[in-house]
User: What shape does this take?
Amino acid sequence: MTQKQIRAMHRILARERKSKGVNEFHPKPGLHPCYSQHLISDDYVTIILNQPLEGVPIGSRMDSMGGTISRECNRGLHYPLEDSEINPDAWRQLKTRDGKDKNSVELSVIDEDGEVIRGQFSPRCLLDALDAAGKNPCFYLGYGGMTLRYPTLLIAPRESASNDGPDIVRVLPLRG
Assistant: This one.
C-alpha cells in the first residue's frame, strides 16, 4: 500500500474517532474485524481491506456492515461511471482549507433501462475514497440497499492492481 493510501485511511479513521468518540451506544472506533477481512468506516466512506493496517487500534466487529457491502457488490445494480464524471481537480476546489465541503458533487450514470441514477456526494469523502483506493480505480454508481432512494458509489481497484490495498471502497451519498 502506498503512503497516500495510508494517509487517506488515517483521515477516515480520524473522522470516525471524532464523530463517535467513546460512547457505549456506538461501536468502538478503529480497524474493525469483518469476517476474514478488516473494515475502516466513518459512516460515509467504508473501506474493506484484505489485510490489517498496522498501528491502528482494533475496533468493534462489523460483520453486518461487511455482509451488507458484499451483497451490494454482488447484486449487479451498479453501473460504471463515465471518465468525465471523475474529476478530482474540481472536487478539490469544493473543499475549504480546513477540509470542510463548500458544496456537494453530483455524480450520475444511466442504467440499462435508460433511467438516470444521481447522487450528491461530499467532495472530501470522494477525495479520501479515491486516495484510499489506489491508482486508476474503477467507479460504479447504483443501488445497493433495499431502497432505490439513495445510490451508493463503489470504487474498486483494477484487476491488475496488487492485492495489498483495499478490496472495495464504498461511499454513501449526502442525505438532505
